[in-house]
Design goal:
The structure holds three protein chains of three kinds. Chain A is mostly helical. Chain A has helices spanning about 5-25, 30-55, 60-90. Chain A has one domain: Helix Hairpins, CATH 1.10.287. In chain A, helix 1 runs antiparallel to helix 2 (about 30-55) and helix 2 runs antiparallel to helix 3. Chain B has a domain at about 65-115. Chain B is flat, with a radius of gyration of 26 Å. Chain B has helices at about 1-20, 20-35, 65-85, 90, 95-115. Chain B has five helices and no strands. By secondary structure, chain C is mainly alpha-helical. Chain C has a two-stranded antiparallel sheet with strand order 1-2. The chains are: A mainly alpha, B mainly alpha, C mainly alpha. Chains A and C meet through helix 1, helix 2 and helix 3 of A and helix 5, helix 6 and helix 9 of C.
Chain lengths: ~100, ~120, ~500
């Protein structure tokens, strides 16, 4: 069987890609996608830990479903905000949202 | 360990090696066996569709997005109902109440969105 | 074979009342005509006040809900949770009184405002009651998602939308960190239930160490502690002021509630490990918060940095709790006193704010306020004195107890930093007061009846905490975590 550490490495890489995307990308939609990547990295972790460490108790699986749900709710709110900003300014580039700097 | 991993993957490798044959074979056989009579209409991109009018890179109406949001309601419903359905025989009356409560709450959300006009297409 | 968990629904009756009432209110709101939406606002109290009464009745009781067979409860009620729930519900009630006239005058009158607030309060209450990391995460999202929407509630204003988007992106970012921490904890211990983590975690497990670090990042973000405070000023400046008044207390206290429970119940034996981290965060938070506030011209931005600084003072108590679990009560008392002072300060800001465009929010706009509104100016002065920590105010006694807890725990230099930064804070807190009393200017204010009520309550409470802190501190010191053994028996 593939060892647990491989899954953890994939998950950590995915999380880091998401983190990099969030910090480096300027487009708000891309930033939202980066956040989703980070949440999916957590899901890989949860399911892998469940399979390898506590396969008799399905808690890890159940939590992955909860995380999916939360991610969906978060994406819905995020897209609503992004669309609302886009309608007003014709831009979703983070650096152009600078009304609140001084 | 590595050996074991390789054994797990060997079928994948075999599939990867074989899989190009399946799309390639009809194309090549077609070229070899079929008659070749090209004309202008056959060369069009959408041989069996309507020709596009104007720019293909248009934005969708934003109402489309509201539907996507409402879809999330049903999406989540399915995600949670599926495991319960799979284990239905084990769960008993307790699960019936839980699921009923869950669906009622989702239905309230849908009713609210409906009433506020989220399902109207302008 | 599946066995239904022990429910013990009495534990979460306040939550059930709020949730059900929020859903009913969604229906009622559909039939309230536009322009009469203040009814929805006042109807919110029909849910909040019974929930508050029930919460007060739960004082002194301990119990757990949703206990799987042979497992630990998902939700617990103990004095710690009850104390904090009272805080959220009081914040909610006062915020309703602030909001009704504010959102009408700002042209934001839509019913969603109120039930989103109710859902957010449910999330806050669950933060302090959750006994399982995953449930803390769910509560965190239940509290945050309505707040993202509320920050962007003023859809007619660029700043409000922008603040909501920033809050959302950074909030989702911190949630991801927090969640990754949960997943690692699950990997290290095979569970996310706090009492079981306490039993199973091994001190030399690097996985658990990484998990604790990531959980701390998530919490530091939620309470607005340095270096994860960047979102606070932008969000506070852009969001509608009534929302800021609500979330500057509710979201912060909820973050602290979960932080204290996770550190105090899940990882108490790692005290010597997380204490230095909290100490450094606390020191940085006090320094950065107070010094950055000095340069602010916008009063909402100034109060945002003040909120950051206050998070630093609360963290002193958390840091001290590593060696002495009793120190938590100093932080709890601080939050109680801070609630009334802060909501009072925001009530004054709302009274002076002119709603046509972002006017009346600069510190200069307070010039000459005392000429026309003497009582309001005196209230402003009193709240600012309390935030500085001048005697006879709630802020003074709160700082006194927190510093006392720090000294008892031997964190002398942290307390010294706290005292020095408190002196620095006088520079910016007293500026609007100075402008109001010493300068001539055109400042005007409108005080609606709801706002008047909040101001009176806040002044009175701050005065009581300033003069008779003893009984209230006694209450806070009884607000300890419940005994784990009683949870297993199901209360």
């Amino acid at each position: 069987m593939i060892p647990l550490s491989w899954y953890l490495i994939v998950s950590a890489l995915l999380f880091s890609i998401g983190l990099f995307g969030l910090l480096a990308r300027r487009n708000a939609v891309a930033m939202l996608m980066a956040v989703e990547l980070m949440l999916n990295a957590v899901n890989i972790n949860l399911v892998a830990f469940w399979r390898y460490q506590t396969p008799e108790a399905p808690a890890g699986l159940a939590w992955a479903v909860f995380v999916l749900t939360i991610a969906a709710a978060e994406a819905a709110v995020g897209l609503a905000l992004i669309i609302s900003v886009y309608r007003r300014r014709d831009s979703v580039i983070a650096e152009e949202l600078d009304t609140l700097k001084f | 360990m590595t050996n074991e991993v390789l054994q797990n993957w060997q079928f994948i490798f075999i599939f990867v090696a074989l899989s190009p044959i399946f799309p390639a074979a009809p194309v090549i056989l077609n070229r070899l066996l079929g008659p070749q009579k090209p004309n202008a209409i056959k060369q069009q991109t959408y041989e069996c569709g309507i020709e596009t009018v104007g720019d293909t890179w248009i934005q969708f109406k934003v109402q489309y997005y509201i539907y996507a949001l409402i879809f999330v309601v049903f999406d989540i419903e399915a995600v949670f109902l599926f495991p319960i359905a799979a284990a239905w025989g084990l769960l008993g009356l307790f699960a019936v109440f839980e699921v009923a409560l869950f669906i009622i709450i989702l239905a309230v959300g849908l009713y609210y969105a409906w009433n506020r006009g989220a399902l109207e297409w302008f | 074979m599946f066995a239904a968990p022990t429910l013990n629904l009495w534990v979460i009756t306040p939550l059930i009342i709020l949730t059900v009432w929020a859903i009913i209110l969604m229906f009622i709101d559909l039939f309230i005509p536009a322009g009469k939406k203040q009814w929805t606002g006042w109807l919110t109290l029909v849910g909040l006040i019974p929930a508050l009464a029930l919460t007060l009745m739960q004082w002194g009781q301990t119990g757990g809900a949703f206990i799987a067979e042979g497992g630990q409860p998902m939700v617990v009620v103990d004095n710690f949770a009850t104390f904090l729930n009272t805080l959220y519900l009081l914040t909610g009630i006062l915020a309703v009184f602030i909001s009704v006239s504010y959102i009408r005058d700002a042209g934001l009158e839509r019913g969603e405002y109120y039930f989103l607030m109710l859902f957010s309060i449910v999330g806050m209450m669950l933060m302090g009651m959750a006994n399982d990391l995953i449930l803390i995460f769910l509560a965190l999202e239940l509290l945050s998602i309505p707040l993202y929407i509320l920050s962007g509630f003023d859809t007619g204003s660029d700043t409000s939308e922008e603040s909501a988007l920033k809050y959302f992106l950074l909030g989702a970012f911190s949630s991801a960190f927090f969640l990754f921490g949960i997943a690692l904890t699950y990997g290290a211990t095979g569970t996310t239930s706090l009492p079981v983590i306490l039993d199973t975690i091994s001190l030399d497990d690097p996985l658990a160490l990484a998990a604790l670090g990531m959980l701390l990042v998530g919490f530091a973000f939620k309470v607005g502690a340095v270096p994860f405070h960047m979102w606070t000023p932008d969000v506070y400046e852009g969001a509608p002021t009534s929302v800021v008044a609500f979330m500057s207390i509710g979201a912060k206290v909820a973050g602290f509630a979960a932080l204290m429970r996770v550190l105090g119940q899940g990882f108490p034996m790692w005290g010597e490990l997380w204490q230095p981290a909290i100490v450094v965060i606390s020191a940085l938070t006090m320094i950065v918060g107070n010094f950055a506030a000095v340069r602010q011209q916008n009063i909402k931005r100034m109060l945002a940095y003040s909120g950051i600084a206050n998070a630093g003072y609360i963290l002193i108590g958390v840091a001290a709790s590593a060696t002495d679990p009793e120190a938590i009560s100093a932080s709890l008392y601080y939050m109680l006193a801070y609630l009334f002072t802060n909501i009072g300060a925001f009530a004054v800001v709302i009274a002076v704010e002119k709603l046509d465009g972002q006017k009346g929010l600069l510190v200069e706009d307070y010039k000459g306020l005392a000429k026309r509104h003497l009582l309001l100016s005196l209230a402003l002065a009193y709240f600012m004195f309390s935030l500085v920590g001048i005697p006879l105010t709630g802020g003074f006694t709160a700082k006194f107890y927190v510093f006392g807890a720090g000294v008892t725990a031997g964190l002398y230099w942290l307390v010294v930093i706290g005292a020095i930064t408190s002196v620095v804070s006088a520079f910016y807190y007293l500026r609007p007061v100075l402008y109001a009393f010493m300068y001539e200017g055109p400042a005007v204010a409108r005080v609606s009846r709801g706002l008047m009520f909040v101001l009176v309550v806040a002044v009175f409470a701050t005065l009581v905490f300033g003069i008779f802190p003893g009984p209230w501190y006694e209450l806070a010191s009884q607000a300890t975590f419940g005994n784990v053994a009683t949870f297993v028996a199901g209360g």
